[in-house]
Here is the input.
Amino acid sequence: MDKRLSLLQKILNGDIFRAERVSRHYRLLALIGIYIFLSILMGFVSEWQYVRIGALKKELQDTRNEELTISSELVNSTRQSAVLRALKDNGSKLREANTPVIVVND
Here is the structure.
């Protein structure tokens, strides 16, 4: 019990860093500290990238849905009946042709 208290006391006082066996390994301890710091940093970076990928996927899905909506509206607005209705609503005198289209081949 006394050894535990003395070890805890050395750690809290900082005397453990003055010990010869610890002072020989400062470079190794610094390298381990840098490794731990970089590991934590890379974890945060990868988590940020994961969130960014999710946001980009959502934006892509929204853009695809918008494109489908626009193309559907375009198809509906360019139908012959819709064009004729729009011409009639605007008071145009253009009417649907009664004669079939003649194709001239060269």
User: Anything to note?
Assistant: Residues 71 and 77 are 10 Å apart (CA to CA). The chain has a mean pLDDT of 86.
